[in-house]
Design goal:
Two copies of one chain form a homodimer. By secondary structure, chain A is an alpha+beta fold. Chain A has helices spanning 63-75, 97-113, 119-134, 139-147, 183-188, 196-215, 218-224, 231-234, 241-250, 272-289, and strands at 3-13, 22-38, 43-49, 80-86, 150-156, 159-164, 170-176, 193-195, 255-258, 265-270, 295-300, 307-310, 326-328. The first copy, chain A, contains ten helices and 13 strands. In chain A, the strands form two sheets. In chain A, strands 1, 2, 3, 4, 5, 6 and 12 form a seven-stranded mixed sheet that branches. A five-stranded antiparallel sheet of chain A has the order 9-10-7-11-13, with helices on both faces. In chain A, helix 2 (97-113) crosses helix 3, helix 2 packs across helix 4 (139-147) and helix 6 runs antiparallel to helix 7. Chain A is globular, with a radius of gyration of 19 Å. Chains A and B meet through strand 5, strand 6, strand 8, helix 6 and helix 7 of A and strand 5, strand 6, strand 8, helix 6 and helix 7 of B.
């Protein structure tokens, strides 16, 4: 039976200074979606692994399902497709799990149909999938999961994406504590308005951050990793957040903040050795302040995003699978 | 009598997407300040040309005077300095007039004292001058007037400045209508808060704009020249603003908006020919909607900012005077 499996990586969105518009991709973890033809003439989901039964099996209510439907409709494809989803990402972790499933689904279906659609088209379909399947869409997770690297979303709809350069030594640390935060609840904390002086500081930092990526100026990048918008309002959702962030800074991180709406936290570091030290310090601080068993990842910024890993005729844009992340405990 | 004269250029701040943090320098017009020693042991202003008698002659209340005092105090200089100011910039035009006077003053005094202070030190003194002399300071005018080029002010105090690259073909048009807007009044229109979705759009645009400068991507630059913060609230201060902006777009501008708090308007264009067309169209639209005699300038982005033009031992940072603007009527 013809089948295509695609992998889409976890992503860190917001990145302190880029609330709702900036994200980057990790090598791992990620979600896998396998697509094969069915005779039912519609999109079905036959299995979801590692979700503890919590995600909807109804394709019309599942981000991967809706994204696949959006792409098939755009292609005028009348054949049905069955999806199998393997969650590598913990649910509600702030690492772009629903985005990764939507992205993996469109890449798998694109491979199965041999449609070879542009990344922008796949992005639009994945965006539709997350918006209608999960209730809200985060292009700052979808875009880096699909494209890899650092991505700035100038506009989500219609899509206007800016792929930013990645300094070679930049390494990410992500710690996921045993804690769940609902995106909707984290969103509600933000309110509808922000102080003008905070907004000004935020765009000054984002502008400087983009410049720092272009120049590889990690000192400027470090100064720019400041969140005046989301972090002050959401930090209370993570017990000991200030101490965990301080542990990252003391261990040499360029900066640290919440990943997306949390509870995962990320740090950016200059090189592997610094990242290992920061990972150890953050993990220890999470154990102290939150308890449980945190999951910690150390990964360079993944230059390659989603791709076909089994089957298909070559993957998205000719990109091949890459690896390099170091999963820690 | 030993005397040093410095020139500091007009600047366009805000630049649509960078409210309060982004600005660029024109070649002309600008203000000139001449500094010479006096025996009074304090800073005096003996003449101001072209201000119609409206600027304070009391050095402690004049931006140039306060800036000069700040620098002399920092140098531990006990001798007195007399300043003569020649305004090349129209008052309250939105072209950074008080910033230009403060910048020209510190550069002239730096030349007279042969102190050779860093640009960052001169910036801090000029900032103090405008803040205490004019009541509010606009580092996004001061910094590009001093440094030249496009400057992003990540933080004003303590100063953290990012000098951005300037695409070679980028040309600015500035039209100053016969109309005055008080900065304080324009500021009051902004209020203290902004809608979160507008703020998000603003920093997405500024991030994209910085990327566009680095890549020389004028299409992206054009899409990013959008102001969700100040322009919607201030446009009503300029009769016919929407029509003038549309005239710029129709004539081929990459984008147009208010310069600072107005009433001057700027456009950015790809090349001299486009700029000349845009200048003619905007000038005509200003005549139609506002009347009077507008002043129109076409200028590449000035890579060189303030500098000693008469006397001294070499100018700021070894920079020499340059020219290239084309004043139009």
């Amino acid at each position: 039976m013809e089948a295509v499996t695609a992998f889409a990586p976890a992503t860190v969105s917001n990145v302190a200074c880029g609330f709702d518009v900036l994200g980057f991709a990790l090598h791992e973890p990620g979600d896998e979606v396998t697509a094969h033809w069915n005779d039912a003439g519609c999109v079905r989901i036959d299995a979801i692994a590692n979700d503890e039964g919590r995600l909807p099996r109804d394709a019309a209510k599942n981000t991967a399902g809706v994204a696949a439907i959006a792409l098939l409709r755009r292609l005028g494809e009348r054949r049905g497709v069955t999806l199998s989803i393997r969650k590598g990402l913990p649910l509600s972790s702030g690492l772009g799990g629903s985005a990764a499933s939507a992205v993996a689904a469109v890449v798998a279906v694109d491979g199965l149909t041999r449609a070879g659609q542009s990344l922008d088209t796949l992005l639009a379909c994945a965006f539709e999938g997350e918006r209608d399947g999960a209730g809200s869409a985060h292009a700052d997770n979808i875009a880096p999961s699909l494209y890899g690297g650092f991505v700035l979303v100038r506009r989500a709809d219609p899509v206007d994406i800016v792929r930013l350069p990645v300094p070679a030594s930049l390494t990410a640390v992500v710690v996921h504590p045993e804690l769940e935060i609902e995106t909707a609840k984290a969103r509600a904390l933000l309110g509808d308005t922000v102080a003008l002086h905070d907004a000004i500081r935020q765009w000054a930092n984002l502008g400087a951050f983009v410049d720092a990526l272009h120049r590889g100026d990690l000192a400027l990048l470090s100064r720019s990793l400041e969140d005046r918008i989301a972090e002050p309002r959401r930090a209370a959702l993570v017990p000991g957040f200030a101490a965990i962030k301080r542990a990252a800074a003391d261990a040499g991180a360029l900066g640290a903040s919440l990943s997306g709406s949390g509870p995962s936290m990320f740090a950016l570091c200059d090189g592997d050795a610094a990242a290992d030290r920061v990972a150890a310090a953050m993990t220890e601080a999470v154990r102290t302040h939150i308890g449980g068993i945190p999951q910690t990842y150390v990964s360079p910024i993944a230059q390659v995003g989603a791709r076909v890993v089994v089957g298909g005729v070559g993957g998205v844009g000719g990109l091949k699978a890459s690896s390099g992340s170091t999963p820690h405990v």
